[in-house]
Prior knowledge:
Blueprint: E1 2-6, H1 11-22, E2 26-30, H2 38-44, E3 65-68, H3 77-85, E4 88-91, H4 92-100, E5 104-109, H5 114-127, E6 133-135, E7 147-148, E8 155-159, E9 181-184, H6 198-210, E10 217-221, H7 225-232, E11 239-243, E12 248-251, E13 254-259, E14 262-265, H8 271-286, H9 291-298, E15 309-313, E16 318-322, H10 327-340, E17 345-351, E18 375-379, H11 382-387, H12 395-402, E19 408-410, H13 413-421, E20 428-433, H14 443-451
Parallel strand pairs: 1-2, 1-3, 3-4, 5-8, 5-9, 6-8, 9-10, 10-11, 16-20, 17-18, 17-20, 18-19
Antiparallel strand pairs: 6-7, 12-13, 13-14, 15-16
Amino acid sequence: MKIHLIAIGGNAMHNLALALHQKGYKVSGSDDEIFEPSRTRLGKHGLLPAQIGWFPDRITSDIDTVILGMHARNDNPELIKAQKLGLTIYSYPEYLFEQTKNKKRCVIAGSHGKTTITSMIMHVFKHCGLSFDYMVGAIVDEFDTMIRLSDDAPVAIFEGDEYLSSALDKRPKFHLYHPHIALISGIAWDHINVFPTFENYQEQFAKFIELIEPNGTLYYYEKDSVLKKLIRNTSNSISKVPYQEHPHTIHEHQTYLLTQTGSYKLNVFGNHNLQNINGAKMICNQLGVADIDFYKAISSFKGASKRLHVIKSTPQSIVFLDFAHAPSKVNATISALRDQYPERKLIACLELHTFSSLNKDFLDQYNNTMDAANECIVYFNPKTLKNKHLPDISVDQVKKAFGNEDLNVFVDIPELIKFLKSLHYKNSNFLFMSSGNFDEMDLPALAKSLIE
C-alpha cells in the first residue's frame, strides 16, 4: 500500500505517518514547514521529506491513497495534481474511520478532558494486556506514537476533536467516526474562528450524538446543564448513561479513590480528573475490564502530556505546566490546585495564544475564571494577534474581560519574568497555563530560580 501525506509535518499527521510505516505501508509526504519534534521523529524512520515545499511531480498514479492534513489549503499544488489524476483522497479523520470501519469504535468527545480520558483508557487497556487501536491528541507515557492502526485489534479508542477535518471537508473531525460507544465530558464554547456562536458550537455535539451507531451507548457528565439539554432533545434511541465524579478523599496533598474494595492512591488530582476517571471506568467496564483491574491500572496513571505536569518541586513549592487555555479548562485547573493544596499560595499565569483566547468577542468568557488564585497573571504577545490577523486588544480590555482589577497583564516576556521573580514564593505553588510556549521562555530555568 502506497500512501502520500500532504502536510506530513503536523502533530497529528506525522504520527499517522509513523503508524502507517509501522503497519508496513510505503509512506511518503511533503510540507512547507516541519518543526520539532516532527522533524526528528520522521527522520528517525526515514520519512522526512528530502526537501521542504510542495512538489506536484511527486504525485503519481501509483499512489493508492492521499491523506490531506488540515494545514494544507484547497489550492495546494499536490492536492490539485492528485485530483487531476483521480486519486483517492481522504482527510485525516476520514482515513482513521476507513482503517477501523470493521472494528468497535469508541470516541471520547467534549470541550475539556477528552485527551485525558482517552489516555486513561489506553493506559488501562495496556496494563490489562488488551489489543486495541487508538488515536489521542498528546503523547502518553509508554506509547511511542499518538496513533496505532492494526489489522487484528478488535477495538479502536479515538479522541473526538470538534475542529474541522481538512480544507476540502469542513465537517468536525468527530462527525466522521460513527462510534458504537461515545462519551461527552462537557460543553463549553471554543474555536470561535470556526463556530462564531455558542449555539453553532453546541450543534456540532448534537450532530455527534445523532451519528452514534444504532444500539450504541453514550456516557455523559450529568452536571453539565448544556449537555443534559442536548441529550434530552436527541432523537437517537441509544443508551444514555450519566456519570459524576468518582468518590474520593484528599489527605496530605494526595487524592485517593474510594471503592468497595478499598482506597487507591492516585498520581493525578482535581475534580475534572475525578470526573474523567469515572467516565473512563464506565467505558472500560463495557469493554470487558473488571473494576479491580481498572483501579489497579488507573492508580499508576500519571496524566497526559502537559496536563498538570510538574516542572520543578521542593517540599514547600511546586511549579506546574498545564495545557489549559479555554476558560473552562483554566477555571478547572486552578480549582484543582486550590483543592489539593489549600494552605499554599497559588500564583497562576495564563498565556493567551489561541484564536479564541485572543479574540475580543470571546474574552468575556474568561470572566472570574482565575479568581481562585492568590496572584493572577495573563501574558499575550501583540505580534501573535497580527500573525493571526486579529484586531489588537489592550491591557485594559483583558482586565475588564477577566473581571479582576488585581489582574497583572504583561505583553513582554522579560517584564513577566522580572515580576515573577519579585513575588514572595514561600509555601507557594506556581501554575503556568498555555497551549503555546510563552514565546519559548525557558520554563525549567525559570522554575528553578523561583523555588530554589
